[in-house]
Design brief:
Blueprint (H helix, E strand, L loop, with lengths): L1 H23 L4 H13 L1 H8 L10 H23 L5 H13 L22 H14 L4 H14 L11 H15 L8 H9 L4 H7 L6 H33 L12 H18 L6 H16 L10 H10 L1 H24 L17 H10 L1 H12 L2 E6 L2 E7 L2 H8 L6 E2 H4 L4 H4 L9 H15 L1 H5 L2 H13 L6 E3 L1 H17 L10 H11 L19 H27 L8 H7 L10 H31 L2 H12 L5 H13 L9 E3 L3 E3 L2 E3 L4 E4 L1 H5 L14 H5 L20 H18 E5 L7 E4 L2 E4 L4 E6 L21
Helix pairs in contact: 1-2, 1-4, 2-4, 2-18, 3-4, 4-5, 4-6, 7-10, 8-9, 9-11, 11-12, 11-13, 12-13, 12-14, 13-15, 16-17, 21-27, 23-24, 23-33, 24-25, 24-28, 25-26, 26-28, 28-30, 28-33, 29-30
Bound molecules: protoporphyrin IX containing FE.
Protoporphyrin IX containing FE binds next to helix 21, helix 28 and helix 33.
């Protein structure tokens, strides 16, 4: 068996290399990114699938090729359909056909990309399907397993429902499916049934079919052992491993359907015990037992479930897996460590200092150039060095800019202990303090993040719309008309009022709650972020000393106001409150203790900073872009006047977020352990950053990227890794629902009564405010009152302007 295992590993590596070469030449960038990412990131799945090649008595090349190709295709389609979720369920179903037809050599081949936003994969998917079909046809017992396999694989289409982001809609759909399609013969709950169906594995039946003497009763016995039990175990183990990431990114997690964590673990342990005790009784029982316990050990050896907070539960599951699992677990862990080391020892290919190339200028000059001309600098580097280059700054380790979608995905999905985004955000420490959850990593970050998520959840924000509209109406009514007007300071005051209300609540009147004093103090204090002493700490001791001292003074004053608000709240009842302060006061640290005062202060300040500067700057860009693009403005006003929903408004905001993302890059990730991405292995102290700006201006993804054209978002939605204004993964912006509500409300309110024309011929250039960019002159525009024409705007004061290409 050991020799077969070694043979299987070598053959799997060979097959994977061949698929990797093919994937690298896929013409459409989004599909290429999905294919490469699945190959790099989900390699464990393929290696797990190829283990089934040990089941037959004799080695079988066709079986191994089939197992590898099928798993590669499965993982690839999982990503492709998730990222094409915007194309609707028809797209998911059409793509899913590939999984069925790959195992049905006689079926006609469909057009899998019929509903998908991208289509040209250079024949990659078809090659995978045909490889599987050819291999199936060579398995002697295939006819016997075919009906069961096709039924199981068809039911896997249920997977696509998991990509539905709205939890209530998703759960209803999954429950309905389970009740309709999957009779409860085994005492499983609805979510266990859907979990098992979504993880149906044809592998074991394919392995049986490789035996020339495959008997029907053996097929039936293996089928009923694996389905639903082994499938359910795999689905739940997968969910157990990813639960922290799933919670952070608000993705569906099967394991969190159980009432408590203890109940989930108990149930999972019982299911594991069941499959382990049944395995030896199956045909070829010894190998089945090794395989089953090997799979459990592989899952439990994942680094994410070996942290201090998960170690005890992982041990408990390993005990349920039996003696072989316990023996195999350290071996699987050692194997993972060896694989990481092997990756590390690979020499970097192009640069003697271990970093991609970058402009060969002193860090001081590069820091200044990037600060002054960020767009031009990034584009120049990309033209010279491609989608990956290094930027050297004073007072910061080397920053590697990534703008290839596949590389960005690999980076953003890396385990929490490999890349530390918290550490990468240290630039804002003077404002948010050292105990802000935004600057922490791993479990501590998650604990803080979890505490604030409910206050920013979609459902909670939905209930705020009328209050936000009230603030917007009141603020915008006072904006002067017919004169050039910088909107950014007004937008900051507005968005700050909204976030302060979200944090401290609505119960007390604005003037009496100390919030208006806090707003004024924060506005003054954050004036620092537009000053050059902020990005260049060295100046704080020289010419920028006075500016810095002022900042420190205002910070103390702001802290005092926050302290008073916290103390006041501690004295009153928190019952029924769903504001962020109430959530933070109720939250517990990883050791069970409540948050200290400085933790509360730092987390509140983080929400204040992240929750208003961003939205205000994004709106400032929106007004610049709409003022300089009359056709888009006209169409938006028509939609508002006709009361025709908010399709174009949403597309306009999406295009603003694409064209002028306020974050030019997601928070830099500090490399803690070596990680291979693309052609490079990065090591500490490098910092990696996903360059949102370059990604959003990639002509392969967005044709004519410099044009402001909201229509592109009506024609199709890009995959999540092609459009990253909110970042992704564990750090994905938790405030996106609030930001969208504010942006929609402000734009609708302003354009209901006014038009916006530019105050100068050119769009304003970017100017840094801490880690985001804003229009340098504060987004100066002229607002003109207009007569509302319910049947659509017939004339526009800017009608002589041409659409601007920016
Ligand atoms: C248009 C407005 C906004 C944009 C474009 C934006 C964008 C972003 C981005 C790109 C990140 C980093 C994600 C990453 O590195 O992967 C982020 C993080 C964050 N955003 Fe937003 N954001 C906006 C509004 C808001 C609002 C209104 C809030 C409300 C409090 C908010 C709270 C946060 C927080 C707390 C984080 C850090 C999350 C963590 O550390 O886990 N943001 N945002």
């Amino acid at each position: 068996m050991t020799r077969t295992l070694l043979w299987g590993r070598r053959a799997t590596t060979r097959e994977l290399h061949a698929w990797h070469r093919r994937a690298a030449s896929i013409p459409d960038a989004p599909i290429r990114a999905d294919a490469l990412d699945a190959l790099v990131h989900k390699r464990d799945n393929v290696e797990g699938a190829s283990l089934f090649s040990i089941l037959p008595k004799y080695r079988n090349e066709s079986l191994l090729r089939l197992l590898v190709a099928y798993q590669v295709m499965w993982d690839f389609l999982d990503s492709v359909s998730e990222h094409g979720a915007c194309a609707g369920q028809a797209n998911g179903r059409q793509l899913h056909r590939a999984l069925v037809e790959a195992l049905d050599p006689e079926a006609p081949i469909s057009d899998y990309y019929r509903h998908h936003p991208w289509k040209d994969d250079g024949g990659y998917l078809r090659a995978l399907v045909e490889t599987c079909r050819r291999s199936c046809a060579r398995l002697p017992g295939y006819r016997q397993v075919r009906p069961l396999i096709l039924r199981g694989v068809r039911d896997c289409a249920i997977q696509s429902l998991n990509h539905e982001r709205e939890p209530s809609r998703r759960d209803v759909a999954l429950k309905e499916w389970a009740e309709r399609e999957f009779a409860d013969e085994h005492g499983l709950s609805w979510f266990e049934r859907t979990a098992a169906a979504g993880a149906f594995m044809p592998h074991v039946l394919l392995a049986l079919a490789a035996e020339p003497s495959c008997k029907q009763e053996e097929v039936d016995a293996v089928y009923s052992a694996y389905f639903p039990w082994v499938s359910l175990t795999i689905s739940m183990l997968d969910s157990y491993i990813d639960r922290a990431d799933d919670t952070a990114s608000e993705s569906h997690s099967y394991i969190s359907h159980y009432a408590t964590e203890a109940a989930a673990l108990e149930r999972l342990a019982a299911i594991i015990r069941r499959i382990v005790s049944h395995a030896p009784g199956l045909p070829n029982g010894r190998r089945q037992a090794v395989l089953t316990e090997g799979i459990i050990a592989m899952y439990l050896s994942t680094a994410g479930v070996n942290t201090p907070s998960t170690r005890e539960s992982t041990r408990m599951l390993a005990r349920a897996g039996g003696s072989l699992t316990r023996v195999l677990l350290p071996i699987a862990r050692a194997w993972r460590v060896a694989r990481t080391r092997q990756t590390t020892s690979k020499e970097n290919k192009c640069s003697p200092n271990g970093f991609p190339p970058g402009l060969p200028l002193p860090p001081t000059i590069l820091t200044y150039v990037y600060w002054r001309w960020p767009f031009e600098y990034m584009k120049l580097c990309q033209t010279r060095y491609g989608r990956c280059f290094t930027h050297r700054m004073t007072s910061f380790p080397q920053l590697v800019f990534l703008s290839d979608p596949a590389e960005i995905r690999t980076m953003l999905a890396a385990p929490a202990e490999v890349l530390h985004p918290g550490e990468g955000g240290e630039k804002i420490t003077p404002i948010v303090g050292t105990s802000s959850f935004m600057l922490l990593d791993e479990d501590e970050h998650l604990a803080g993040r979890r505490a604030v998520l409910p206050a920013l959840a979609k459902r909670t924000i939905g209930r705020e719309s009328e209050r936000v509209a009230e603030i917007v109406r009141r603020s915008t009514a006072s904006w002067p008309r017919d004169v050039p007007l910088p909107l950014h300071p007004r937008l900051r005051a507005l968005t700050l009022e909204v976030i302060l209300r979200r944090i401290f609540g609505w119960r007390e009147p604005w003037s009496e709650s100390g919030l208006s004093a806090l707003r004024d103090s924060v506005l003054t204090m954050l004036g620092i972020t537009g000053n050059v002493v902020f990005p260049l700490p060295i100046l704080r001791h020289g010419p920028g000393r006075t500016v810095w001292e002022h900042f420190l003074e205002y910070r103390s004053a702001t802290d005092e106001l926050i302290r008073a608000l916290i103390d006041e709240r501690r004295e009153t009842t928190a019952a029924g409150r769903e504001d962020a302060l109430a959530m933070l006061l109720a939250a517990r640290n990883t050791d069970g203790s409540p948050m200290t005062h400085s933790q509360l202060r730092d987390n509140l300040m983080s929400l204040i900073l992240a929750g208003h500067e961003t939205t205000a700057s994004q709106l400032a860009w929106a007004f610049q872009l709409l003022a300089h693009n009359p056709p888009a403005q006209t169409r938006l006003i028509e939609e508002i006047d006709e009361n025709a929903g908010d399709e174009y408004l949403t597309a306009t905001i999406q295009e603003v977020l694409r064209h002028r993302p306020v974050f030019l890059f997601a928070i830099p990730r500090a490399v803690k352990r070596p990680i291979e991405i693309g052609a490079w292995t990065y090591r500490p102290p490098a910092h990696l950053l996903a360059c949102i700006y370059l990604l959003h201006h990639d002509p392969d993804i967005y044709p004519e990227p410099e044009r402001f054209r909201p229509e592109r978002f009506l024609e199709g939605q890009p995959s999540p890794y092609m459009w990253l204004p909110w970042g992704a993964g564990r750090k994905r912006c938790p405030g996106s629902h609030l930001a969208m509500l504010e942006m929609k409300t402000v734009l609708r309110t302003v354009f209901e009564s006014t038009t916006v024309s530019p105050a100068s011929r050119h769009m304003e250039r970017p100017r840094w405010r801490s880690v985001i960019v804003t229009p340098h002159a504060g987004s100066r525009v002229v607002l003109r009152r207009r007569e509302r024409e319910p049947q659509g705007l017939r004339t526009a004061p800017w009608r002589n302007c041409k659409e601007t290409v920016l």
